[in-house]
Amino acid sequence: MPQEYDSRASLHLDVNQGLDRVTELVQTRLIESGWRDQVKLHCRKTILESANSKHVPTVDELITQITPKARGMVPDAVKRELLHELELILMNVDRTGYAKNI
Amino acid sequence: MSAKGCLHVQNLKRHPQNLDTFKWLHTVFVVAGSPKSHEIKVSNAWCRTCKNRGPFLHACLGCVYFGCHKHIREHTKSQKHNFSLELSYGQLHCTACGDYVYDADIDAITMENKMNAAEFRKRLFECTSWDATEEERDLLSHKTKKICITPECTIGLRGLINLGATCFMNCILQALMHTPLLRDYFLTERHNCNNVQGACFVCEISKLYQEFYNGDTFPLALPCLLHLTWKHATHLAGYRQQDAHEFFIATLNILHNHCLDTMHKNNELLDRENGKCPCIIDKIYTGSLQSDVVCQKCNVVSTKIDPLWDFSLDLGPVTLGGKQPTSLYAVLEQFTRAELLSYMCSSCGTSQESTKQLTMKTLPIVINFHLKRFQHSEEIKKKISTVISFPEMLDMTPFMSSSSTENPYPQDNRYSLFAVINHVGTSIMSGHYTAYVRHHRDIWYKCNDEIITRAKFEEVLASEGYLLFYHKHVLDYE
C-alpha cells in the first residue's frame, strides 16, 4: 500500500467503487452539457492548425495543450454537483465497512 | 476496416505470451468486472514512483510497473520497455512511435474482454470505433436527409385530431410520446413483432413514434389505435368521454400484454430476469408499495409489498379536522402517513387497533401521479378543484421505505416533471383534456388536440393538474 494511500477517504472511494460511480456521473454530465463536444472541437482545431507544420501532434502533446483549456470550460453546475456527490459519499465513510475487503 | 498498428506491435504480436499478458492486464485492470479483479486493481493500481492513483495510470507490458502519465513515460524510456497500457480506457501506447497505437487484433481482444465483462462499463465503449456493416453503409449512402435538432425545432410535435370526444386518448398519447425512455425504446426499434399486421398495439405505438419524428407537421388521426383500444379494453368502447387515467392504465395493460406475447417465444429472457417482467412497460412504470400493519397490542409488523403502475392520491382530508393539502408534497405525506384501523391481528388473534402505513419500496423510472379529482363514491359526481402545487423537481426520498441500511450510498431519488394532463370542466363525463409536455429541456408545449402551442413553464406549474408525469432525473444501472 502506498503511504499517502491510507487516507481513509480515498480508500473508501476506491473500495466501494464510489469513485467509479462519481466518475460515471461526471462523465454523463459533461456529455450532456456539451463539454465533450467542445473539447473534441478544440482537439480537432489544434490538429488542423498543426497540419501546416507537417507534424501530427501525439496524444500526449494534445493532452498538455488542451487540458488547461478543457478544465476552464467545465460548467459550474457540474462542479457543484460533483462536490455535493462527494460530500454525500464521504459523510458515509463511518457508516460503511470500507476496510472489509482488504 | 483494418487498423494495422506500427511495426513494433507486429513484433509484439509474434509471441503469443505477449498477447496473453496484454489480455490479462486488460481484463483485470481495465475492465475489472469481477470482485476479485476489482480487489487486485484497488491494491495494485497506483504509481510506483509518486504513489498517486493517477492521472492517466498506465501499466508497463514489459515488467511489473504502474505509473502515472509522467512517470510511465520516464519508465518506458529509461528501461526500454516499449509498451504500456492505459488503464481507464485500455489504449496501448508505443514508446518508439511516441503515441498510442491501434491494431485490429488488439482491438479484437479488448472488445472480447469488454463484452465478457460482468458489469457493463459505458466508459469503455465510448471510444470504440464503429465498423459499419454492409447494410449500414448502404443506408448511409442512400438516406442523406439531415435533420438538425435546435431548441426551436418542432420535430417530435404532432397534433392529434379529435375523433369525437377522444381528447382523453390524445392527451395520454402526447404524454407517452414525450416519455424519454419509451421514445428511445421505440425509435431504436427494439420491438420485434410477429403478430398479424394491425393487431398489435405495440406496433401501432411504434408506428406513431415514426409519424411523430418524421418531420411532418400536419395533425394525425388515429382511428386504428382507437379501434384497437376498443377491442382490447371493452370498458372504454363507445363515443362517450372517458377518464384519461383509466385510458392510461388500460394502455399500459394492453402494451404490457402485447409485449409479453412477443416475448414468450424466447423464454430465456423471462428466466434471466428471474420472475421480473422484462417488458419495457414494466421496466419503466412498475414500482412497488410497501404496506406495514403494526398491531398496537403485540407490536407485530406484517408487511405486504404490492407492485403498482401509478400513484392515485386522495385530495380530501382523510380525518375530520385535517387540513386540506395544497401541495404535492403534502398530498404524498398524507398518502404515506400512518393511519389507525381496526384489524384482525394474525399473531395475537384479537381484533385490535392497528396502524397501517404505506411507503414506497421501489420507485419506477416514470412516476405517474393521479390526483383523484373526481369522486366516484357519492351519487353526485363532483370534481375537486383544489389547487395543488407541484414542483419541477421532486425528491421522493422522504416517502421511501426505511431500508436504507442495505445500501450504503444515498440514492438519488430526484424526479423531474415532463408532462401534465389537465381536465377542464366540471365532471368526469364532460369537459375537455389538454396536455402540457416537455419537448426539449425547459421548452414546453401545450397540446390541445390538433392545436399545439408553445407554453411558458410558469403556465404549466400554475395549471390545475390531473395526471402528473415525473421522470427519474438520474438513471442507474441495474
Describe this structure in words.
Chain B: This is Ubiquitin carboxyl-terminal hydrolase. Chain B: Keywords: Hydrolase, Metal-binding, Nucleus, Protease, Thiol protease, Transcription, Transcription regulation, Ubl conjugation pathway, Zinc, Zinc-finger. Chain B: GO terms for molecular function: cysteine-type deubiquitinase activity; zinc ion binding. The complex is a heterodimer of chains A (102) and B (478). Chain A is an all-alpha fold. Chain A has one domain: Serum Albumin, Chain A, Domain 1 (Orthogonal Bundle), CATH 1.10.246.140. The radius of gyration of chain A is 18 Å and the shape is elongated. The N and C termini of chain A lie close together (11 Å). The two termini of chain B are 34 Å apart. In chain B, strands 8, 11, 12, 13, 14, 15, 16 and 17 form an 8-stranded mixed beta sheet that branches. In chain B, strands 2-1-3-4-5 form a 5-stranded antiparallel beta sheet. A 4-stranded antiparallel beta sheet of chain B has the order 7-6-10-9, with no helix packed on it. Chains A and B meet through helix 1, helix 2 and helix 4 of A and helix 3 of B.
- At the fourth CATH level, what is the homologous superfamily of the domain at 7-124 in chain B? Zinc/RING finger domain, C3HC4 (zinc finger)
Largest sheet of chain B: 8 strands, mixed
Which structural class matches the secondary elements of chain B?
A: alpha+beta
Count, helices of chain A:
5
Rounded radius of gyration of chain A (Å): 18 Å
How would the global form of chain A be characterised? elongated
Q: Helical segment tally of chain B?
A: 16
Overall pLDDT metric of chain A: 77
